[in-house]
Structures
1.
Amino acid sequence: MQPRNMSMSGVVDLAAVKAAGEARQKAETARREHAAHGDGSAVAATQLVIDVTEENFEREVLQRSAEVPVVIDFWAEWCEPCKQLGPVLERLTESYAGRVLLARIDVDANQLLFQQFGVQGIPAVFAVIGGQAMPLFQGAAPEDQVREVFDQLIAVAEQRFGVTGLVTGGEGAEQAAAPAEPIDPALAAGHDALDRGDLAGAVQAYKNVLSDNPADTEAKLALAQAELLLRVRDLDAQAVRKAAADAPADTDAQISAADLDVVGGHVEDAFGRLVDTVRRTAGDDREKARLRLLELFEVVGSEDPRVVSARSALARVLF
């Protein structure tokens, strides 16, 4: 079973802009349905922790992730650190009252999922938002650190994907039930253009949104992604990679290769390539490489740990 619409190693999904709008609409519909049915349709705390298998993975994780961030706990009965971490994850999940779900996956019984996520050791904790997977941490951790990770995950889910959680009958239900803001028609036009493959039209639509509201974070992300897709659309990947390998001092070649790296999910390679280019160059070439690196930070997201690490590396090179 191969999960659909999912990046298994932190790959950047360049359809995430469209997914964010769809996820926001689905979440808003779900909130309205819950509100219409009253307390009887609220999610019980016991339903916030789910045992997931290869058979129900798509339904319980991928589909639910359109409404709520799903935290995945890879564990095994023989793993002592798993037994320490598991109760912490369950307790925190219930305390967030529908802002996150917890999917428990027994690695012994679900080896295919274990391999697909590239898990190196257990306990290992991942998250899925809007169908997209991202690693969180590995090994047992104290509750205050796990809570911080949950807080960051919830913020990323809402800001980048429009995923705000489920309505529950427990503490925090009022916050989870807050109505989502309607999507900006200009932003929706950009999403539609992106879906049709009209990259130039999408770029222009997102620029129109930002001209009226320069602080719109979703439009910034969407524009960065659409511009990246437009840049790589007509590239010959093999020729670009050969040019970059043959001419490490060619800034333009390294920049094009970095774009392809990000689209292919090799985010660390892209960042490392451009940091090295900044280190080796000066003047206009250095500034060109630096600016492209900052643009790719926007594509991946400022909260992503790979961006945080690359920003530190860039700072060391520049200063």
2.
Amino acid sequence: MKIEVNGIELFYEKEGSGPPLVLLHGNGEDHFIFDESTELLKRNFTVYRPDSRGHGGSSRTAELHYQDMADDVACFIETLGLDRPVLFGFSDGGIIGLLAASQHPQLLSALIVSGANTEPKGLKPFIYGIFRLLFVFKKDPAIRLMLTEPNITKDELGRIHIPVLVTAGQRDMIRAEHTRLIAEHIPGSRLVILPGESHGSYIVHSRKIAKIIEEAVNEN
């Protein structure tokens, strides 16, 4: 399905029944990364899986910015009339979730972010260096995005007043101290570092994240 929001079209899938749950993928991906987890989640939730602008079946744009993506998601939720959904965001999706929750206090009922960062230097230096090299050759707007954004302040994190779970893999490409910083500055948030997991090993085409989401929602 497609919906017009914020001046563009977003492609999305809707499955299941129950309270609304929005799943946001990471950079260079699309909603298909959640195929396996959705098979479980749709038993208890109405699952919405949009493709971010510039990704999947959604509109292409010359530039990509996290603020535009956060505005897209807020408009998506409001246009569909979703009543304070739970939002799960992976990587770039987590960044979008942090912005949306900070700027729209009544938009969401709960937020779960995995492998998110609030500034480019939240990436491990080696990973940041790889993306810089890739951009030299590919000039991809999605790579430029990771090198120049986000720029989320501690004050912005402090404006989030809904239940929040912050997760990362033990071998994540996000610096562990940066993940801890995010959790420390969101009032009342919980932090879980998953042993043995990488940035997306427990999320991309994995059912593991479904259990984490369900447990987080049930604890709220």
3.
Amino acid sequence: MRAIYATDLSAASDAAIENETCLDCLERIGVEEIHLLTVVPSNVHPGMPGMDLEQRRERGLEAYRSVMEAAGFDVETHVVRGTPHRRINGVAETVRADMTIVGSRGQSPLANRVIGSTARNLARTTVVPLLVNRVEREADEPEVLREHLFQRVLYATDFSENAERAFGAFNYLRHATEAATLVHVRSPKDDLDVDPYAALDDLAGTLAQWDIDTETVVRDGDPAAEILDVEASVTPTTTLVGSRGRSRLRRLMLGSVSEEIVAGATGNVYLVPPPRTAGYKLL
């Protein structure tokens, strides 16, 4: 597998990239090649006084390269200019990545808006599965919050086609997964012709074949709020969810639940988008 690792070279990025347990989890699910990527804001120009930002970021990426190569990964580095989520998606398309990884925290309301906006924009537009790796907030030397990335997974499903696609990620995540909680939230707008209890039991049976301890939960109410409430109660290391919609309008509308989960989850989030199609254009 080939992964994009997007970084802003902050202390939070140091914590995520230098965490040996996180890197081991990526290796266990089959990641072999990592493309380290940092985006220079388009409003920063080389001619501006003291703005040798690209050179400094190249040096920073080389330090990260050493860490990841020592962990056994093949590594390439990319310093690009532009809007973060657009450039991250663009590089992911170019190198045919299998997943994108981005860290997320926020020390202040302003920092949370700036750093969190990239994760939220990626949640809406990502072209490959997206791992949002949570790092401590309000810490000078932050640590990742749940370093065993896929050890305990909370899988949220509405039984849609893309939720099924997200469940398919267990084909590789299972190599690092010991336990899973499967949750479905019923809402007044549901038009399901399936029994959610039976459907979740069927999925649990699949995971049991891989020796993954599984429990199922059915809730009623607002999907995002209930999923986040289950996350708070079972403390998974990662929440796995699919996004729906292929057109710009549908992604904005139907992606709202996954965006809320990315924005509000305490732990890591693994978001699986619809499959890439020929002629796909980034937003």
4.
Amino acid sequence: MRVLGVDPGLTRCGIGVVEGVAGRPLTMLGVGVVRTPADAEIGMRLVAIEQGIEAWLDEHKPELVAVERVFAQHNVRTVMGTAQASAVAMLCASRRGIPVALHTPSEVKAAVTGSGRADKAQVGAMVTRLLRLAAPPKPADAADALALAICHIWRAPALNRLQQAHAAARPSRIPATAPVRKVPR
């Protein structure tokens, strides 16, 4: 499975591509950051993020895009920028028919380090180790994007089994051959 991870942000949007399957060594195919100037108009920043993500999608052709789920912070401005960048990533993937998965920061940290409270240095160190890199990706947004991709690759088989079990346990209440009733006017 080839996953493009996106750590959304207006100033630095981390992007990383990882390929592999759960239980086997993973391979990093690319890592980087889409940057926008803080003093630029918001619309132009979002266009720059879109162009950057589109270029990564063109180059790496992922099967899935994993995006960090936006969570509430004290700084509303930061949350809004993160949400806007996140929406751009989801739009770019959806426009191409690529499935999108959202993971919370604590899910990603727990998957990669074993602790949902790990700090950025711990995440970077584990990403470096798991992908057999010479040094942690810089900046931390790039390492976080790789961690998102790793998290999804590792969690996808279990999530798929859960979804299948849930669907089997809740059969449709309307039979496929149910007659259609016309409502009198």
